[in-house]
Amino acid sequence: MTVIAPTRSPTERSALDLARAIRTGETSSRSVVEAHIEQLERTHARINAIVVNRYERAREEADTADALVAEASDPESLPPLHGVPCTIKESIAMLGMPNCAGLVSRRDWRSTENAPTVQRLLDAGAIPLGVTNTPELCLWIETENRTYGRTNNAYDPDRTAGGS
Length: 164
What we know:
Low-confidence stretches: none
Number of helices: 4
Shape: globular
Largest sheet: 3 strands, mixed
Radius of gyration: 17 Å
Strand content: 5-15%
Distance between the termini: 46 Å
Strand order of the largest sheet: 1-3-2
Number of domains: 1
Structural class: alpha+beta
């Protein structure tokens, strides 16, 4: 008897599994990005994790990733996270995005370059969906600050989501 595992949604699969599925054409980067955006939009009011999104740009980048898969003579040669969505902590510099680490005095600051960690993710083919909340200066055990407010636990809003 053959047992077939239930298909997991794109939001429940690992990054490497998604990258493989995108490279092989099992799914598209656009559909994976859309599934993650839908999940983030559905839960935002309750959780407050994404403090600034870049959904439209992520959709464009997903379309570009899908075009590269279609054009590639060897899709396995694409970067390891090609077309996979991710998020970046707001306290880590990402070009053009806020980078105040929850400090009110830096609320209007925008990054002028990518931190090495962000650049490595981009070079690996990842597609950032936005920046996420952090404790003020990443110093506390709870994610709450006067710039973006509190991030709640995804499973129980009465509990903390923890720090970074």
